[in-house]
Write a structure and sequence with these properties.
Elements (H helix, E strand, L loop, with lengths): L6 E6 L4 E3 L2 H8 L6 E5 L2 H8 L3 H5 L1 E2 L2 E2 L16 E9 L2 E9 L5 E11 L1 H18 L7 E3 L2 H9 L13 H16 L6 E3 L2 H4 L10
Parallel strand pairs: 6-9, 9-10
Antiparallel strand pairs: 1-2, 1-3, 4-5, 6-7, 7-8
Helix pairs in contact: 4-5, 4-6
């Protein structure tokens, strides 16, 4: 028995509209941060939905209202959180890192440029900077998102396993690494450090947009 055709509404994506196949819909949402879309059984339903808001239709489930916690995005992202990322031109190269409000994308801190750094070091420093900031602000359970498993492991183990050699050029950067390690070894934190699933959600909100 062949499957019935579905129609896909993309409210927010590379090209919003109505699509007749999952492949076409997927092309519009892949890599788009917080894409908003839903499948419908008929074109008529899809066309009517497209004139409404995304929230109106995602709040409906078999005719009943589904309560969605305010601090969660519909696809599972905790919007009341901090997101961090780094950008490095070369490896090693010129390095920057920043932290933003996941929901509003407002920049909360930004450091750099640093000479002769690596992306992993930047991701690590961004996480520790974020933890220290949240502790200072009393946000002890506020989550932090990172798309770097390496940086998350370095924070968890309180150890930086980098092959980058220390030199007079990157001494200021390594001094920050020393301070970050000292902070981790002398301070405690409760903030959940969560992996940002890029394949599912697109680029992390703190991304520098230089890819």
């Amino acid at each position: 028995m062949s499957r019935k055709q579905k129609f896909y509404v993309v409210w927010e994506g590379n090209r919003p509209g109505i699509y007749e196949s999952w492949a076409d819909c997927k092309a519009q949402i892949m890599g788009y941060p917080n894409a908003r879309y839903k499948a419908f059984k008929s074109r008529t339903e899809a066309e009517e939905a497209y004139t409404d808001s995304f929230t109106d239709h995602m709040a409906q489930s078999t005719g009943k209202k589904t309560v969605i916690p305010n601090n969660y995005h519909l696809d599972g992202v905790i919007m009341e959180s901090l997101s961090v990322d780094a950008a490095c031109s070369g490896n090693p190269g010129v390095l920057e890192y920043q932290g933003v409000d996941t929901k509003t994308k407002m920049v909360l801190f930004r450091q750099g440029p640093f000479q002769k750094g690596t992306n992993n070091i930047g991701e690590f420093l961004a996480l520790v900077h974020g933890l220290a900031l949240l502790k200072k602000e009393g946000k002890h359970r506020y989550p932090i998102y990172s798309d770097s498993r390496t940086a998350m492991a370095w924070v968890r183990n309180k150890k930086v396993n980098t092959k980058l050699k220390r030199s007079h050029v990157n001494e200021p950067l390594f001094q920050l690494v020393d301070r970050a390690l000292s902070w981790l070894k002398t301070q405690s934190y409760e903030n959940p450090i969560l992996k940002w699933e890029t394949d599912k959600w697109g680029e992390i909100p703190a991304d520098f947009g230089r890819k």
